[in-house]
Write a structure and sequence with these properties.
2 domains; alpha+beta; 24% helix; globular; D-amino Acid Aminotransferase, Chain A, domain 1; binds 2-OXO-4-methylpentanoic acid; binds pyridoxal-5'-phosphate; 9-stranded mixed β-sheet; D-amino Acid Aminotransferase, Chain A, domain 2
Length: 354
């Protein structure tokens, strides 16, 4: 794919990365854009100065939510090299979401090339402080101006970049999670496995309720029986029960997390038994009462490994590992971030150096 590059004539001041960056608040100098037109396919790949979009208010994305997004990170190691973590997996998942949402596929090699190119152009924006990275947000929106419910015939594929710190303001300190028993996020056959805005819009009411009660995020139960654990608002969830690592299986209603897959592989390489299966909230409560529940942590690109110190379900408030980060969670955090920033040798072949 040919990518035209137009550099900005008025570069912004790169912020001081030593200060708290927060998550997703600062944007770099450039963005990647590519158009899709029915009959012509994806065309006009370009890196241009970061700018506002001009869209008709009738653009279909505003009305029926036909959109897909992805999330990955670029890391700058002590060696000064910029690395991406498993971008091929994001390209594959983007197309799984695209297929579900009737958005045209993006060739995986073009997706990865687009990410690499725009990150390279803004590589000075990749922070190096511990716990920081350049968050990469690729997304596609439907742009036909038409109010009928149908797949759009035109789209924009855009990638924006945001130097970011920890997703939770608490950093690596354990978070409190609210097990939601009223609202549900997704059902099998729906769009739960796709990375698309609608899933997040559906999550907001429960998240607001959880925040009001002092919890960081919501843990969803299955949409049919409201009995089985699914995933957290922006993370997959893992439990260490009696020495085994247990995580909900991919059932079609949860996001197949790339960090989830990486953690499963790393844990297996350490000799842990990893079970991908149904786990009910009753089993979890019983495991906590008997002392079998040793650790709980979430996994995600933005959240990395996020220890859970407290889980609330109806009137039960469970404290996990005395509210402290557990040894496996800590070791996973060190290992995953070590692979990502190049301080650990990548025996898995996951990192892509620019
Ligand atoms: N589940 C949800 C709902 C998410 O938004 C995310 C974040 O991307 C994840 C799980 C974790 O996925 P990944 O590890 O690919 O970032
Ligand atoms: C990510 O971890 O990349 C995500 O997309 C989470 C996001 C919803 C903040």
């Amino acid at each position: 794919m040919d990518i035209r590059i137009e550099k900005t004539k008025s570069p912004k001041q790169i912020p001081d990365f030593k200060g708290p960056l927060g998550f997703g608040k600062i944007f770099t100098d450039h963005m990647f854009v590519m158009n899709y037109t029915e009959g012509k396919g994806w065309h006009d790949a370009r890196v241009i100065p970061y700018q506002n979009l001009s869209l008709s208010p009738a653009s279909m994305v505003f009305h029926y939510g036909q959109e897909m997004f992805e999330g990955l990170k670029a890391y700058k190691g002590k060696d000064g090299k910029v690395r991406l973590f498993r971008p091929d997996m994001n390209a594959k998942r983007a197309n799984a979401s695209n297929d579900r949402l009737c958005i045209p596929r993006i060739p995986e090699e073009d997706f990865v090339q687009a990410v690499k190119t725009v990150v390279e152009v803004d590589s000075d924006w990749v922070p190096t402080e511990p716990g920081t990275s350049l968050y990469v947000r690729p997304f596609v929106i439907a742009t036909d101006d038409f109010l009928g419910v149908a797949p759009s015939k035109t789209y924009l594929f855009i990638i924006i970049l945001s130097p970011s710190g920890a997703y939770y303001s608490s950093g690596l300190a354990p978070v409190g999670i609210w097990i939601e028993d009223e609202y549900v996020r997704a059902v099998r056959g729906g769009i739960g496995f796709a990375k698309t805005g609608g899933n997040y819009a559906a999550s907001l009411a429960a998240q607001v309720k959880a925040h009001d009660d002092g919890y960081s995020q919501v843990l969803w139960l299955d949409g049919v029986e409201r009995k089985y654990i699914e995933e957290v608002g922006a993370m997959n969830i893992f439990f260490k029960i009696n020495g085994k690592i247990v995580t909900p299986m991919l059932s079609g209603s949860i996001l197949p997390g790339i960090t989830r897959n990486s953690v499963i592989n790393v844990c297996k390489s350490w000799g842990y038994e990893v079970e991908e299966r149904k786990i009910s909230v009753d089993e979890l409560i019983a495991a906590q009462k008997s002392g079998a529940l040793e650790e709980v942590f979430g996994t995600g690109t933005a959240a990395v490994i996020s220890p859970v110190g407290k889980l609330r379900y109806k009137d039960d408030v469970m404290t996990i590992n005395g509210g402290d980060i557990g040894p496996v969670s800590q070791k996973l955090y060190d290992t995953i971030t070590g692979l990502q920033n190049g301080t650990l040798e990548d025996t898995f072949g996951w990192t892509v150096t620019l």
